[in-house]
Amino acid sequence: MATQIADPEASIKNHPETVVVRFAGDSGDGMQLTGGQFTLSSALTGNDFATFPDFPAEIRAPQGTLFGVSAFQINFGSTEIDTAGDAPDVLVAMNPAALKTNVGALKPGGLIIADTGEFTKRNLEKAKYESNPVEDGSLAKWNVLAFDISALTLESVKPFGLGNKEALRCKNMWTLGLALWMFDRDRAPLIDWLNAKFRKNPVLAEANIAALNAGHAYGETAELGGQLHKQHIDPVPSPAGLYRTITGAEAVALGLVAGAKLAALPMFFGGYPITPASSILHYLAGLKEFGVTTFQAEDEIAAIAAAIGASYAGSLGVTSSSGPGIALKGEAMGLAVMTELPLVIVNSQRGGPSTGLPTKTEQSDLYQAVYGRNGDTPMPVIAARSPGDAFECAIEACRIATQYMTPVILLTDGYIANAAEPWAVPDPDTFTPFPATFLDKPNGPDGMLLPYARDDKGARPWIKPGTPGLMHRIGGIEKNPGTGNLDYSPQAHQAMTDARKAKVDGVAKSIPAQDVCLGQPGGKLAVVGWGSTFGPIHQAVRRARAKGMDVSHVHVRHIWPLPENLGDLLKSYERILVPEMNTGQFKTVLRDQYLVDAQPLSKVSGQPFAIAEIEAAIATYFDGAPGNAGGDEVGPNAKQLPSIESANP
Amino acid sequence: MNAIATITTTLKDWESDQEVRWCPGCGDYAILKAVQRTMPEIGADPAKTVFVSGIGCSSRFPYYMASYGFHTIHGRAPAFATGIKLANPELDIWLVTGDGDGMSIGGNHTMHLIRRNLNCQIMLFNNEIYGLTKGQYSPTSRQGTTSPTTPLGSVDRPASPAAFALGSGARFIGRGFDVSKHLPDVLKAAHAHRGAAFIEIFQNCIVYNKDVFEDFAAPKGAEDRQLWLKNGEPMLFGSEKTGGVKGIALDGEKLTLKVVEVEGGDWQAAGVIVHDVTNRSVAHMLVEMPFGPFPMALGVLYDDPRPTYEDAVLGQDAQAREGKNTDLKKLLAKGQTWTVSEDGPEL
Predict the structure, then answer these.
(1) Between B77-87 and B309-321, two packed helices, what is the crossing angle to 10 degrees?
(2) pLDDT value for B324
(3) Cβ separation of A44 and B83 shorter than 8 Å?
(4) Is A336 exposed, middle or buried (0-12, 13-18, 19+ CB in 10 A)?
(5) Tell me, what DSSP letter sits at residue A216?
(6) Do A43 and B336 lie within an 8 Å CB cutoff?
(7) Using 50, 70 and 90 to split pLDDT, how confident is the model at A275?
(8) What is the pLDDT of residues A251-260, one digit of tens each?
(9) What is the average per-residue pLDDT within A591-615?
């Protein structure tokens, strides 16, 4: 066992409120599974938590390579947790490549647990290490606990007669056992889970349980050189009630099921496999008993087209994809706008143009959602800020789609889709239903049918084919405002374009006023966010406020149309900072809509914002002075444009 | 076709109030009339009938039928139809597409609709040209077709819609042409087939590809150039008046079809094949049979139903729902949960 000792003050043996642990290993090492089970264990301990799974795009990258490293980070604690944490306190590195790619993020003084059994010459070469880092002193600023986990695992599962490869697969459970010991966790739920998972292969179940127990016992009995201490993180005080863990993909699926039920409609979900959106289709395919029909189409276009067809026939059509797939759906979205049929389009955003970074997260499809279609094609856009929030957003998307007879885009991202958080299970009896209605008799004078007559919300009637006496034709060609008959006349196109815009603008009347989620209206600085940047923004604003800075957090759910009071609210601040995982898209929308001096804070590395990054950006507005009460003149940085007041005297 | 009650209508009941906007003399008019004439004969209900189309001249068709109609986007009508049928299998769906819409931009969707066997009728109007975009060559245009995009003549080989459909797994292949008096019979047979029924309808584009099918569609010499297939009857064409009765027989050595002379009405002696609509091997030969050396195969080339897509999907849905929890409250609380009480969390 090799050990390197850093400043003991900085080690994790103090009693922290929150701890960040990152499990990193080869794609085949089962790190996502380990992380997922550790998450569950955190939930059962009553800790609040947030997770960040980060895995390569390759299904099975060559073993031991730097690009084949798969990591899972969890931030858990006895206080409210909004992000997966900036820098890990503990890094579990299952091989040299995992160490190399992850150690840079580790806090100084943090703990590295490494499996020396994998630090072979060959693996060190693959990770491009010239000498063994656990022996050469290069890790001196951290605490290193390096021992042969592979050998210990093999030893622990020896009685079960597994082959070497199968036996080594139990390494992740051994490691999990050690982690459970470290954080004083109960093993029983994990043992139940392993028994259930390997129901058909009891030997594997027993071997994995033996490895888990051995890892735990190792912590209990081994002399670990003083670095490793059992510590207990108290439960976070949460309102009483039933809780579960939920990922964004599950939340979207459940929200859609709830939304269709509230609209009293069967749901038709058309999808095509794409990362990271597929998990919504997977999940819904198992929920047929809830009136869900799923259709794996031949391509993205067919997926949305079938969903529109189903909406036309009286179901709630839903389709889902990620950026490149959404691009393919663009033309069909135009038809849904033109024919004014309800439709929910979920975009689990990922990184970059084209294929980009398929497994990484980004928020760069905002322009695409708001502006990205031919013609004047207004469409409501909603963005979820967290896995739990995605549930409510999905219901909201169903409401707007069916009440306004319009397609609606729901934006989530790779981070929300994959991350898990504790979720207070809501009571569906408390939801407000919004049952859809269908026209059953002619609605015009003298028994005339007017498929494009509008109600007080600007919505046209929904007419199901199959209804006697209401036969009519619809399509993508411009139409007469009432009858819906083909009409290319200048008057018709102007009137219908205006009507479609007015209808979508009018959605703003049915959405809540924009609130300030931390701070107050008015003041020096508003940090305005949308989507999954909620966590880091919220924590950064909280920290800045604790230092006395006059900064507030405004988080926007309704991206289009924007809440009616948002313009006035933004204008009540002297400065506006918009952190986004893109090059400044929402910033542009805010500038365009309100002529405010919104400033971008951009990050497009495929990784979520660290709290510290946003905190640092906030500090630039306050001369970077800790303890600044916010009363002094804000020193704008050199790049800033004129303030709101000077621009709009 | 669906197991729904038939109703009584007349041709007039199927004419919408919309002005028909095809070029005067377009073959589409004749097809429209043939369809409007067929609907009362099959007892179709306008309220339960949906015409779904893509983009192109043919795709304007739904506007002129007094039923439900959905004019969608280029090439994607099969996908819309799939969603409509899965949402309401009671609806009787007629897909209207063209050679550009259904074979080029929408070839993918045509293939998948056919292989899934969605119960609907697919009418592909084949005029071997892009009409609505003003005369570019299409995927069915013959080699050497001069058009605005192929001033020196097209070089790519044409696709055969019927062969494509059969290759995609079609269980019904029908063929007709716009002005043929037999077209309603083909439409009726297609409607009677439960599953995806593919009908290739040769259609004369009088502006951009005039009379391209004249070789076999012209009334003069039609007997010699058209092979109207009837189930259970020998594959005969021609007449004593026009140069002799001929038939289609199997060349056993080459495993291909051949044209044989029939002497004195004794087609058995000549080895003429009796048409069996369920014979898939012969169907493959018929869709590949080149016009010129052979007559044009028309009528019902193949008809052998098998279970439909919507029955399978909805059957699975129904099975999955049997005896299952449909309580949303329970669903939301599924998975590994814990309860927080005043004493802290517990399993």
Answers:
(1) 40
(2) 87
(3) no
(4) buried
(5) H
(6) yes
(7) confident
(8) 999 999 999 9
(9) 95
Tell me the C-alpha to C-alpha distance, in Å, between residue A48 and each of A80, A92, A177, A235.
Answer: 6, 21, 21, 7
Q: Which chain A residue shows the shortest CA-CA distance from B14?
A: A471
DSSP label of B61? G
What value of ipTM does the predicted structure carry?
Answer: 0.97
Quick check: B339 and A242 CB within 8 A? yes
- The pLDDT score that the predictor gives to residue A628 is 41
Gyration radius of chain A's alpha carbons: 27
The SS3 assignment for B169 reads: coil
Q: Could you tell me which residues come within 8 angstroms of residue A568 by beta carbon, excluding any fewer than 6 positions away?
A: none
- At residue A301's C-alpha, the angle toward residues A403 and A374, to 5°, is 70
Q: What part of A 471-500 touches B (C-beta under 8 Å)?
A: 471-477, 485-486
Q: Say if residues B87 and A267 touch (Cβ distance below 8 Å).
A: no
Q: Is the Cβ pair A473, B18 closer than 8 Å?
A: yes
Angstrom distance (rounded) from CA A172 to CA A341: 49
Confidence of residue B347 (pLDDT cuts 50, 70, 90): low
Q: Which of A128, A533, B333 is nearest to A541 (CA)?
A: A533
Residue B345 has a pLDDT of 61
- Burial grade of A146 (CB within 10 A; 0-12, 13-18, 19 or more): buried
Cα–Cα distance between A277 and A325 in angstroms, integer?
Answer: 10
Position A24, amino acid: A
Token representation of residue A336 = 């849904």
Contact A331, A372 (CB under 8 A): no
Question: A542 vs A303, A522, A602, A635, CA distance in Å?
Answer: 43, 17, 20, 21
CB contacts under 8 A, B 275-334 vs A, are: 313-314, 316-317, 320-321, 324-326, 328-329, 331-334
Given a cut of 90, is residue B162 above it in pLDDT? yes
pLDDT at B346 over 80: no
| Per-residue model confidence (pLDDT) at position A28 | 83
Handedness of CA B120, B125, B131, B133 (dihedral sign): positive
Residue B266 has pLDDT above 90, yes or no: yes
pLDDT tens digit sequence for A465-524: 999 999 999 999 999 999 999 999 999 999 999 999 999 999 999 999 999 999 999 999
* CB of B96 closer than 8 Å to CB of B58: yes
Among candidates A606, A594, A550, which has minimal Cα distance to A570?
A594
pLDDT of residue A564 exceeding 60, the answer is yes
Identify whether the C-beta of residue A247 lies closer than 8 Å to the C-beta of residue A413: no
- A177 pLDDT exceeds 70? yes
Alpha helices in chain B (DSSP H): 27-41, 77-87, 99-100, 107-116, 161-167, 183-192, 214-217, 222-225, 267-270, 280-288, 309-321, 328-332
Sign of the alpha-carbon dihedral angle for B201, B207, B212, B217? positive
Instruction: Retrieve residue A32's tokens.
Output: 């996502």
User: Concatenated DSSP letters for B203-252?
Assistant: ---TTTSTTTTHHHHSSTTHHHHEEEE-TTSB-EEEETTTTEEEEEEEET
From the list B47, B329, B344, which residue is nearest A46 (CB)? B344
pLDDT tens, B204-242?
A: 999 999 999 999 999 999 999 999 999 999 999 999 888
State which amino acid sits at residue A2: A
pLDDT score of B4: 56
Q: Which two tokens stand for residue A488?
A: 């290319």
Q: Are A72 and A596 contacting, i.e. CB atoms less than 8 angstroms apart?
A: no
Residue spans of beta strands (DSSP E) within A360-490: 381-383, 407-413, 420-424, 473-475
Q: Give the pLDDT of residue A630.
A: 38
The amino acid occupying position A446 is D
Q: Which residues pair with A601 in a beta bridge?
A: A579
Instruction: Write the pLDDT tens digit of every residue in A180-207.
Output: 999 989 999 899 989 988 999 999 999 9
